[in-house]
Amino acid sequence: MSLTPVSPREDLFDVAVIGAGVVGCAVVRRFALAGAKAILIEKGADILCGASKANSAILHTGFDAPPSSLELALIRAGRQEYLEIHESRNLPLVRTGALVCAWNDDEAERLESIAETGRANGIDGLTLLSGAEARRTMPALSDRLAAALEVRDEHVIDPWSAPLAYLSEAVALGARFLRQAELLAGRFDDIWHLETSAGPVSARAVVNTAGLHGDTVDERLGFAPEFRIKPRKGQFVVLDKAAARHVPRIVLPVPTEITKGIVVCPTAFGNVLIGPTAEEQEDRNRAAVDARTLQALLARGSEIVPALAGMPVTAVYAGLRPATESKAYRIFVRREKRAITLGGIRSTGLSSALGLARHALELHATFAAPLAPPQTAPPVPVPNLAETRERDWQRPDHGEIVCHCELVTRREIEAALESPVPPGDFGGLRRRTRAGMGRCQGFYCHARLAEMTKGRLATPLAVDAEDRNR
Amino acid sequence: MSGTDADVIIIGGGPSGVAAGLELRRRGVEKIVLLEREAQLGGATRHCSHSPFGMREFGRVYFGASYGRRLEEEAQKHGVDVRTGHSVVGLGMDGSVEVATHRGVEAMTARRIMVTTGAREQPRAARLLPGDRPIGILTTGTLQAYVAFHGLMPFRRPLIVGSELVSLSAVLTCLTHGARPVAVVETRPHALARAPLSWFPGLVGIPFRKGVEILDILGSSRVEAVTLRCDARSETLACDGVLLTGVFTPESALFLQSPLGVDAGSAGPAVDQDGRLANPLYFAGGNVLRAVETGGWAFREGRAVGAAIAQDLESGSPAADHVSVSYEDPVKLVVPALVRRRDIRSAALRQFQLRFLRKARGTLSLTIDGRTVWHGRGRWLPERRILVPIPDSAQDARHIGFRFAEEP
């Protein structure tokens, strides 16, 4: 197989989408559905190599989004579309609800205004609860809880399968995915001539969804910088599945001016997540964890839910959010150059991606000729990885279980490797199957995965035999 | 055996599980089902290259997978119903287990369940190591599986972290498979393996450093370097992998995810002197009780617990009350952590097994109902086996505890 499944060079595309995060995947799908001949180009070996690989996997309502903002409208539109399409794409929706938890009187007083904002934002299902009432819905919460705002419709989803489903659908409609293709430069002379590290690409329009590199891509397209990415690192701890019985709901803090704060929440995969931190840094590529911060997250988690104390750690990770000078989404349209920039999409990108995609198509219609008639294709279901729905290991004839901690079958791994959007690196395989994501982190299955993925990944798990003695 | 699938279901086909099955059969227990999730028996011995197995149990020496094959032969010969490719995914509280096979999911029941799921090394995440998360950071068990099962190597110039016995085995595995470790580092101020074994890296020309702190792991796709602090100086070593050795932990997920729970000290199930849990339908033996002992130890322990299960099935009397054994820092764990009011002399575990969290000097004492019945004074090291006989008087005790009087 090839990491570059098609050669796009000879084609002229209606639109080139730059950056295969969740927003890029959603945008290329929307354009493909609208009949566009679309290409998604990505500098990494796989989708979700940047900001989109590390988030808290919450499908937000927008209850705490800035009132009347574009962000709010797009979260609501994106969420609505997710609710409409998730069943047919086999994507999970874990209806956990959230509790915004106040741990003292000051915070408790602020809950009322948060609820007011939420109602003004058009969100139903907001209920102010006393500490005792909130703990009845989640008994493991610390008895120090003063009060809480219940947000009924905050849900948990699979943050990696959703974008994969979007892109798979686009590919089924004829869109192309070009990876390991960093955008180097772009020149517009009525069509865009994009120079990438994997060769030239021509397109009538471009959409910049480059996340952490959104400003750089704008510059390489020849635009004066409208915003500057200031990466904000978030570290997370993932606890063992044994923790999940204590955390049936998303536990949000009362936000401060500075940060949204540390969230404790269940994952669709049956773990518990604690994070993120908010650490400003210059580096756009490096998202390192550090022991002191991870310990602080563990300590904070067990303050909020005392039963989490001593719970084994399954995984730790860190991601960068593409923050900018402003909290708002940084959306720019250059009509005369048929270019759209969707920048500064931070933690709400998973929720708003489908809304952003619709928005981008609307913006595109303001400057571009009408696209070919909209295409129809059957929805492309993706393999389910959530514990709330049937997994492959529960069905017969899966071959064998390869990853015992996450119960990943040989059939699932082989299907991922043979899929229309196969994993380009080990992280991509993990996100598509959960192999090696469990409590032993590959102690039992890593060698087997090295064997199964030979010749398939940009960075192989095993080193070459002939190089070994060098 | 009315209405159950087996007299005893054993979960895990390493040395302890097979030994338990053989002993149960030897004592005439009819239907023993041994569930193993891998395709072969042997557990960790399948890929362990550092020590030979089998001398005490079979009178000859086996290496690697051949020991597992011998276990398989013995199990077949003695009528243990071995089912490989059977992954137990849940424990009920009533003697039932949920099993995943290539056919899907099924439930099985037995009069007794014995869990022998062994131990594994702690991965990078659970150790809260700092830095990037590229590929090439793995444990000795994983490295051995690369080499033994697939003839693959994950790196050429790894940094080796740890100085337990298994760390030295890791050095050997590297050297014999074309990899050259750049250094062996230990975060504690002293090596964990005994001299002269701890001199080994130096003898083969690999730097060994103690009291090292890992400050950073660097690498975008594969490991590129590790930054260490040693003697208040920081240094960046180029390498293409990080091999995490030792820091074993019981593979006790089945207990952790069930109401049976795990013991805070050992991270395995809390058992009594027969390897029996507070829930009397469940037993455990081998390295799931505590990490980590040799394959031979696990075999003998499994056999002893198997004998206790056979006795229990034969006697048919209800399980007696139990007391918990208390202990304090720097004692890390005590196995058994429970003592039932029943004869100690015929018990499976005749000794308390202890480990220390850290190096300490002082007097360790065992008190039963306020009376010191055993004490030992000296220097105690982490990850070393400490054995204290369980006195007969423990069976009638109301309070059993280990105390430690530390000396500067």
Automatic annotation (TrEMBL), chain A:
Signal peptide (residue range): none
BFD-like [2Fe-2S]-binding domain segment(s): 401-451
Keyword match Oxidoreductase: yes
Keyword tags: Oxidoreductase
Pfam families: DAO (PF01266), Fer2_BFD (PF04324)
Residue ranges occupied by any FAD dependent oxidoreductase domain in the UniProt entry: 14-362
Top EC class for this record: oxidoreductase
Top-level taxonomic group: Bacteria
Protein name, UniProt field: Glycerol-3-phosphate dehydrogenase
Organism of this sequence: Chelatococcus caeni
Taxonomy of the source species: Bacteria, Pseudomonadati, Pseudomonadota, Alphaproteobacteria, Hyphomicrobiales
TrEMBL record, chain B:
Keyword Oxidoreductase found: yes
Keyword entries, A-Z: Oxidoreductase
Chain ranges of the FAD/NAD(P)-binding domain: 7-298
Keyword Oxidoreductase included in the entry's annotation: yes
InterPro entries: FAD/NAD-bd_sf (IPR036188), FAD/NAD-binding_dom (IPR023753), Metab_Enz_Cyan_OpOx_G3PDH (IPR051691)
One Gene Ontology term of the molecular function aspect: oxidoreductase activity
Protein name, as recorded: NADPH-dependent 2,4-dienoyl-CoA reductase/sulfur reductase-like enzyme
